[in-house]
Amino acid sequence: TVIRIHDTKGATSLVDYITAIARLVTLACGSVRTTSHEGGDVEVQIDLGTRGEFLAGNEACFDIVLNGDDETIEIRPPGLLIRSIPSDHVEKAQLSTIAHEMGDRLTSGKELSDPVIRTRDCDLVVRLMGPIDVIDGGGTELNFRKSKSEELLAWLVLHRDRPLRDVARTALWDRSVEDSTFNNVVSELRRAIRAAHPSIDFEIAHNRKKILVPTGIRTDIELLEEAWWNVRHDDSVENWCALHQAVSRIRGLPFEGANYDWADAEGLTSHIVLKIMNACTDLARYYLAMSDADGVYFATSQGLRALPGSQEMLELRAQVMNTTTKVNA
Question: Among residues 13, 28, 142, 305, which one has the fewest Cβ atoms lying within 10 Å of its Cβ?
Answer without folding.
Answer: 13
